[in-house]
Amino acid sequence: MTVITYYSDHYSRDGDMRTIDEGSHGADDINGAPLRVAIGKCDLTAVGASLSDGDVVRMARIRSRNRVVELRFSTDGQFDGGTSPLAYIGFHKKGANHDGAIVDAEIFSGSGGDITIDPTNGAYQDFNVTTDDVAGGSIELAGKRCWEHAADAGVALTQDPKEEWDLTVSPTDIAGNTTSGKLVVAMFYT
Amino acid sequence: MTTYFSDQYLGSATASSQLAQDGTTLKISATRQYAPVRYMKCVVRNLPATDPVQDGDVLRLFPMKSGDVPLRILVSTKAPWTAATDMDIGIALKGIAHDGPLVHANAVDMLAGVVDIGSTLEEESVLANPGALMDPFDDLGKSLWEIANDRVTGLSYSTNPHQEWDLIGTITDVGGAGIINGNIDVQLWYTKAVS
User: Fold this and answer.
1) From A188, which residue of chain B is nearest by alpha-carbon distance?
2) CB contact at 8 A, A170 and A57
3) Which H or E run contains A151?
4) Would you call B128 and A126 a contact, using CB atoms and an 8 Å cutoff?
5) How far is B33 from chain A (nearest CA, A)?
6) Contacts of A118 (CB under 8 A, 6+ apart)
7) Do residue B8 and residue A61 have CB atoms under 8 angstroms apart?
8) Could you say which of A39, A133, A141, B111 is the most buried, measured as most Cβ atoms within 10 Å of its Cβ?
9) How far is B186 from chain A (nearest CA, A)?
10) Percent of chain A residues topping a pLDDT of 70
């Protein structure tokens, strides 16, 4: 029996994982790059019943080239009275003053990967959005660049647009029954 | 549709739909924007059969500084801890040779209380555990001394004391004659406060 050695994408990129590509190695930002963290918090209590479906909370500033290693989302679940409130997590462009257009509101959660906020749960609910904590999540998500996540979600991007974006949370299915809610996002990235 | 902003844009975590009118936005501390994440892991293995671990025994896990910002604490265990065994996670002064006392008597469970280590755990994130004392909204992104102010009754720092501390685990509810050969792995993700 012949033992075969296969190589990961840190060694081989020509489609044949049995051979090393001369000079091939993982991109610098996924091969020993410093890991960084951005933490954003927002208390919607004061917004109260004014919060509506489709509203957007801009949580953290990122760039389209950033690689998301892990994305954690916590909420105290105080979206009182709702039956099945959800949180969508996606991107909006920065624009001139963090007023830019939507990239896609449902990238890390949304279609097939909704984060369901238990409206009766006063304790913090913590989700690792880049794993199977969220339906549709997968370890395959970890390490992709933000624009690649957007492309996976259907945004027409074939290369890095080199833009400044905002990571956004959009509460959904809450109309008429929201009184409070604290949101926390911790994004580990390179 | 209304857009609200987090404290990354406002400097306050209270939601607002208004940014500064001059087109600028407040930049929050670099600690919470792009600070490098650091990593430590410790392993405690084969606690001696001749001296079983008893309630109140302390595991010194990591040397830290009072300005460090804990991001994740992951606890992994395997048998043979007894089923009821728990661990509190708190902070002690370094002392001369990692022999200092708790920073305050109430700091024994400053970061997490009653972490169940009596069953096999795989990377339980004690900072996110609903039973943990840490509150993600209030505490995530804060330095240890600031968390101490929030969580330790009777302790109050007006500024960073710039002390060397140890992150410690205190064993509780072992029961019986104690435990031998217990083992535990703890991983810490943290960053340094940047002013």
Assistant:
1) B37
2) yes
3) helix A146-152
4) yes
5) 4
6) A77, A125
7) yes
8) A39
9) 19
10) 72
Q: How far is CA A31 from the centre of its chain?
A: 21
Cβ contact A149:A161 at 8 Å: no
C-alpha distance from residue A3 to each of A6, A12, A13, A17, B143 (Å): 10, 18, 21, 14, 51
If you average pLDDT over every residue of chain B, what do you get? Answer: 83
Torsion of CA B33, A133, A115, A156, to 10 degrees: 70
Q: ipTM higher than 0.95? A: no
Q: How confident is the model at residue B130 (pLDDT cuts 50, 70, 90)?
A: very low
Q: What is the DSSP letter of B53?
A: B
Which position has the token pair 């009596």? B118
Residues belonging to chain A: 190
Pick the residue of B2, B8, B29, B138 with the most A CBs within 10 A to test the interface with A by mutation. Answer: B8
CA angle A25, A34, A188 (to 5 degrees): 110
Which of A36-50, B116-130, B146-160, B176-190: highest mean pLDDT?
Answer: B146-160
Residues in Cβ contact with B11 at an 8 Å cutoff, skipping those fewer than 6 apart: B26, B28
Task: List pLDDT tens digits, range B157-195.
Answer: 999 999 999 999 998 888 777 777 778 888 899 998 875
Instruction: Say what the pLDDT of residue A12 is.
Output: 78
A-chain residue closest to B30, CA distance: A38
Reply yes or no on whether the pLDDT at A83 is more than 90: no
Q: What are phi and psi of B35, to 5 degrees?
A: -65, 140
Q: Please report, for residues B7, B51, B139, B149, the alpha-carbon distance to residue B159 in angstroms, rounded to integers and kept in the order given.
A: 22, 41, 16, 10
Which residue from A5, A167, A159 is spatially nearest to A71, judged by alpha carbons?
A167
Q: Which of residues 128-147 of A touch B (CB under 8 A)?
A: none
